[in-house]
Design a protein that fits this description.
heterotrimer; A mainly alpha (about 160); B alpha/beta (about 190); C mainly alpha (about 400); B: about 190 residues; alpha/beta; Rossmann fold; 6-stranded mixed β-sheet; 7 helices; about 40% helix; C: about 400 residues; mainly alpha; two-stranded antiparallel sheet; 18 helices; about 75% helix
Chain lengths: ~160, ~190, ~400
């Protein structure tokens, strides 16, 4: 069990570093007033709302991960890791919700169909993605640890 | 007949109210959602009963407008029965208010609500024993999930005014029998 | 028989000793997360994230319905159709109900969109259904979610220190947030505050500085780029004038202990019921006022009252607030319909800073008639006091914003 937990700590340490870097990079990109894209899958938003405000939250998420990995088994430390993931879910959830709402209407002012065409609708979900969306699948790993902990508690084995 | 739902803020009075009357009073997970009283009707064994969702109050000694509403509501309804809704995880504070209402001579039923939260906190309450000491019905409930509501309604008719002296005597007796039982077990 | 406080606690102590067993208390993950959300070091980042989520979803949802569908429905189909079929183009009833239009080189021309036409059936309906309704639905949905999870009291604890500076306790955040939907329930919610002083300060601040859902919706629609600045000015004003009111209003602002409930999984049925109840309430209160306000503004325009007042007061607006002369009309009409006034302002050419000033002015003007009535119910003395504060605030804060603009070199 100790081995698995330290595995978790290492995993979230790496994720924490990456998340923090993403957050900082997003803030820098926003501050410089430009946009940044990499390899067709990553695109840092450069506007003050998603890039600035959202970037700060991604940065916070990274810091939550990093501050929670020491003593990973302790419930209060583990809660910080969970909170890091929740912050990523908030930002990524908002990004995805925005994608959905933008993909459905045609945004035609005057004429033409009301709804988007199917190819355009699908194209709206193609990469590049914002940092939080890319981090989302990796942040979901925390659910595994929450479940493991819950089953551990039922068995009576709880860390002090 | 008139029934007042009373208790601390955020113990679930509005949840009871909605469950009992089928009304749509706003329920939230924060204290102070109900700042004015709401009335509704339900039928118990064929009789029309008026239910009042009273704003939360910590004691009968009001500290703000919402509490004033609560206390004057109680004093205006001399012939009412009261359901005291108590947060099972903070039972002492709830009993304090319940005791004040008992002392004023109102017939009372206690709903030990949020049993699930108490269980989370590893608090167990012996409701039967509490009932014997207080001499009034005590029902464990999880109102938000609808547990215990039926029992509460069925026992409303058992509500009666009790004398505080009896409660004091019962409490003393209870601890006597307890220690006697302990002594017996040890021997 | 009655006991005194000490005897009562003694008895309860004895009873609970007999009936309650406290097991070993284990911190659950829920508790630990709960603690993280109230400690400032970790709670503030969480609050920032919650607000981001709230705002982002609000913007996406409202934009989806308003810009994605309603603007087109109303501007391309509804308005031209009504302009065509409604009889008596150019006369007063047509102007009030459908389109006041405009005069270009002496000729009557029809408006091209529903924000400029100012008819009850065009602008009024568009604002009520196309703009405000989506904003209100998503606002109350998000709010219900936060309430039922149990986040609100935690936010209150977190903000307690800050709000104490303005003579309120953390719980003031509940009426404040409720007011972002509609000021009427916000005013009702001030009843949880303990003293008259606190209630007066809270009601006044709500009425002046907290824009309601209708206003936010319309601002988001017509001046999205300036929203941040406008809200910033309103929040700063909320604290400055809260601080001043706390100093000058007599009375006490006692400490208030907040019970923080456990986090709970929200129940879908409860959220649905609550959102529906609030939207229904909003419809009953707000929609008639939007339409009626629209009609009254239309009549006043037709009678030339607003033009007259606008001309008379133009020097004040230009000299003191630094906004163009043309804004005088909308700023006067704003007393009746803030949302329409914002739309009207957006059609006037001016610098972004002038626009910010004008919209902030519209926001701090007295709230809608519904809120007015609600405050009257709470006491006419309070209402008069709030009116006096309002007048002072409009002039000092409006002037201050102008001054800041001059100092920054943007006004």
């Amino acid at each position: 069990m100790a081995g698995q937990s330290s595995g978790g700590a290492v995993y979230f340490a790496i994720l924490g570093v990456v998340t923090t870097a993403f957050g900082l990079a997003d803030l820098l990109v926003t501050a410089s007033g430009s946009e940044f894209a990499y390899g067709g899958i990553l695109e840092m938003p450069g506007d003050i709302f998603r890039g600035g405000w959202g970037g700060i939250i991604v940065l916070f998420a990274g810091l939550f991960y990093l501050s929670g990995i020491r003593n990973f088994d302790d419930i209060h430390q583990f809660a910080k890791v969970v909170m890091g993931s929740i912050l990523i879910w908030v930002v990524a959830g908002c990004d995805i919700f925005a994608m959905i709402t933008e993909s459905i209407p045609s945004w035609n002012e005057e004429t033409g169909p009301w709804f988007n065409t199917l190819p355009d609708f699908i194209a709206a979900y193609a990469p590049p993605y914002a940092p939080a969306v890319l981090l989302l699948p990796f942040s979901l790993v925390v659910i595994y640890y929450v479940r493991k902990r819950a089953s551990g508690e039922d068995g009576g084995g709880n860390s002090p | 007949m008139k029934i007042l739902l009373m208790g601390h803020p955020n113990v679930g009075k509005s949840v009871f109210f909605n469950r009992l009357t089928g009304a749509n009073v706003t329920e939230s997970n924060y204290p102070g959602t109900t700042v004015d009283y709401t009335k509704g009707w339900m039928k118990i064994e064929g009789e029309d009963v008026e239910i009042v969702d009273v704003p939360g109050t910590f004691s009968l000694d009001p500290k703000d407008r919402a509490e004033e509403v609560a206390v004057s509501m109680l004093h205006e309804s001399r012939d009412a029965k009261v359901i005291a809704v108590i947060d099972a995880s903070k039972i002492e504070r709830g009993l304090y208010l319940a005791m004040e209402i008992i002392e004023e001579g109102y017939p009372l039923v206690i709903a030990l609500n949020m049993r699930d939260v108490a269980e989370d906190k590893n608090i167990t309450i012996d409701a039967d024993r509490l009932e014997r000491i207080l001499g009034i019905p005590v029902v464990s409930t999880v109102a938000i999930a609808g547990e215990g509501i039926k029992e509460l309604v069925s026992r409303l008719k058992e509500a009666k005014p009790v004398n505080v002296d009896d409660i004091i005597a019962n409490a003393a007796n209870a601890s006597d029998t307890e220690s006697a039982a302990d002594a017996g077990g040890a021997a | 028989m009655k006991l005194n406080t000490g005897e009562r606690w003694d008895l309860i102590d004895r009873i609970s000793k007999e009936t309650v067993t406290f097991g070993a208390y284990q911190h659950t993950l829920k508790d630990a997360i709960g603690e993280l959300t109230v400690k400032p070091m970790t709670g503030i980042p969480v609050a920032i994230a919650v607000m981001y989520g709230f705002w982002s979803v609000f913007g996406s949802f409202a934009g989806f319905f308003t810009d994605g569908f309603f603007v087109r429905l109303f501007d391309v189909y509804w308005l031209p159709w009504l302009q065509e079929v409604f009889p008596g183009q150019g006369d007063w009833l047509y102007a009030i109900m459908v389109d006041a239009g405009g005069f270009e080189s002496g000729e009557f021309v029809l408006s091209s969109n529903c924000l400029e036409s100012f008819g009850v059936l065009t602008s009024g309906l568009f604002v009520a259904i196309g703009v405000v309704l989506p904003a209100i639905i998503i606002f109350y949905l998000m709010l219900a979610l936060l309430e039922d999870i149990g986040y609100m009291p935690r936010l209150a604890v977190l903000l307690d220190t800050v709000l104490h500076r303005v003579g309120l306790h953390g719980y003031a955040i509940v009426p404040t947030i409720l007011s972002l939907g509609c000021n009427v329930p916000g005013v009702t919610a001030t009843r949880i505050l303990e003293t008259k002083k606190q209630r007066f300060i809270m009601m006044t601040l709500l009425a002046i500085f907290i824009p309601c859902g209708a206003q936010i919706g319309i601002m988001q629609d017509v001046v999205p780029g300036l929203m941040g600045w406008i809200l910033l000015y309103l929040i700063i004003g909320y604290f400055i004038f809260g601080y001043i009111l706390n100093k000058i209003v007599p009375g006490k602002a006692p400490e208030f202990l907040i019970d923080v409930p456990p986090y709970r999984r929200p129940m879908l049925s409860n959220i649905g019921k609550k959102v529906w109840g609030r939207i229904a309430g909003f419809f009953k209160v707000a929609i008639p006022f939007v339409l009626l306000g629209c009609a009254i503004v239309g009549v006043l325009y037709q009678l030339g009252v607003i033009r007259f007042l606008g001309d008379a007061l133009a020097p004040v607006f230009v000299g003191w607030f630094g906004v163009p002369k043309e804004t005088a009309g909308p700023l006067i009409a704003a007393f009746l319909r803030k949302d329409l006034a914002v739309a009207q302002l957006s059609a006037i050419t001016m610098t972004p800073y002038q626009m910010i000033t004008a919209v902030v002015l519209v926001s701090i003007y007295f709230p809608c008639v519904a809120t007015f009535a609600m405050m009257l119910k709470e006491g006419w003395k309070e209402l008069l006091g709030a009116l006096a504060v309002l007048t002072v605030v409009v002039f000092t804060y409006g002037g201050l914003i102008h001054l800041i603009g001059i100092l920054l070199g943007v006004a």
